[in-house]
Design a protein that fits this description.
307 residues, Rossmann fold, two-stranded parallel ribbon, alpha/beta, binds NADP nicotinamide-adenine-dinucleotide phosphate, 7-stranded parallel sheet
Length: 307
């Protein structure tokens, strides 16, 4: 297959592009930076570089300014929104321009789509509660769904907190653990809907392959846990001496607006549609996921006697 991939240089995209290349696919990678082409991997900086006669078998759209990288100033919020909506509009324009419209679009979104629901279990049909991330995901998904009017199959990837060893949320979450402090945020009772990056890649390949599937898919493990349970599981991989909450007001002071939506509210999301379609998670439980992630690392694996 020939696949157009955006966000291929990112945390999820890098792992996905490796898997796609290993499966024998050819990739066209859109990036803001200039890269030298590799075998079966062509880099472009603008969609205008794709000729009208090009046949694409799929588009996977992962690009977007990180929600967690900076404080949510008004300017950065605009960048978060524009980096996703503008690119999706450009992808739609490309699909209209191509002589052969690609059959499928996998479009990233996030479990932030649902907004804050406390302890409620959230499936793909759950209602939404307003917020910045909620509006962003909702607008992004609505735009991506316009590809259906071109006859394309559209899968919306409602990603949870993706975990692996070389970046993403875990590198931030494990910082205090590496200096001996097992910490959780605020009350620690908020839900963390996590997923191993290997299962994310497998889920994307599954959705690419299954022509009968379309619409929203929660890409989260089947077993969300609380922030405090996560801290206990992570503490098994570090020698920690103190267990402590980072108080909510401190988090609000440190990271501003994003604290409440991204860190303190949490969401209890389950992958109902993926599992109904027959997808099986390699890492359904946090213990097995962290064991795999820390397996080849030199991190101390001493269980915290207090935890
Ligand atoms: N990782 C998670 O836990 C998680 C959770 C929920 C949702 N998601 C969503 O899934 C997608 C992929 O996540 P990820 O963790 O792999 O993201 P990432 O590591 O931050 O990479 C995203 C990619 O988007 C491109 N990008 C960054 N800033 C941009 C901007 N201002 N304008 C245009 N492109 C920009 C970059 O590609 P170039 O530098 O090559 O242009 C970057 O490699 C994102 O849309 C993210 O919101 C991720």
């Amino acid at each position: 297959m020939q696949i157009l991939l955006t966000g291929a240089t990112g945390f999820i995209g890098a792992a996905l592009s490796q898997a796609l290349l290993a499966d024998g696919n050819n990739l066209i990678i859109l990036s803001r930076r200039a890269y030298t082409d590799r075998p079966r991997c062509r880099y472009i900086q603008s969609l205008d570089e794709i000729a009208g006669r090009t046949r694409l078998d799929a588009i996977i759209n992962l690009a977007g300014a990180s929600l967690a990288a900076k404080r949510w100033s008004a300017a950065y919020k605009r960048e978060i929104v524009a980096s996703r909506l503008d690119l999706t509009r450009h992808l739609l324009a490309l699909c209209r321009r191509l002589e052969h419209c690609p059959p499928v679009l996998l479009s990233a979104s996030a479990i932030g789509y649902y907004g804050h629901h406390g302890d409620d279990v959230l499936t793909e049909t759950s209602p939404v509660e307003p917020g910045f991330a909620q509006t962003l995901c909702s607008d992004w998904e609505s735009l991506a769904l316009q590809a259906e009017s071109l006859g394309m199959r559209v899968c919306l990837l409602r990603l949870g907190v993706v975990l692996d060893s070389d970046g993403g949320a875990l590198s931030q979450m494990s910082k205090s653990f590496s200096v001996g402090v097992a910490s959780w945020l605020g009350s620690g009772l908020q839900w963390l809907s996590w997923v191993h990056r290997k299962d994310v890649v497998r889920a994307l390949l599954f959705l690419l392959d299954r022509e009968d599937l379309h619409g929203p898919f929660n890409i989260t493990s089947p077993a969300p846990i609380t922030s405090r349970e996560f801290a206990a599981a992570l503490a098994c991989h570090y020698r920690t001496f103190i267990r402590a909450a980072v108080p909510a007001p401190v988090i609000r002071l440190l990271v501003g607006d994003m604290a409440q939506e991204l860190l303190l509210n949490g969401q209890r999301v389950v992958p109902q549609r993926l599992q109904a379609a027959g997808f099986e998670f390699f890492y359904p439980a946090i213990e097995s996921a962290l064991d795999e992630i820390y397996a080849d690392q030199t991190t101390l694996r001493t269980r915290n006697s207090s935890g």
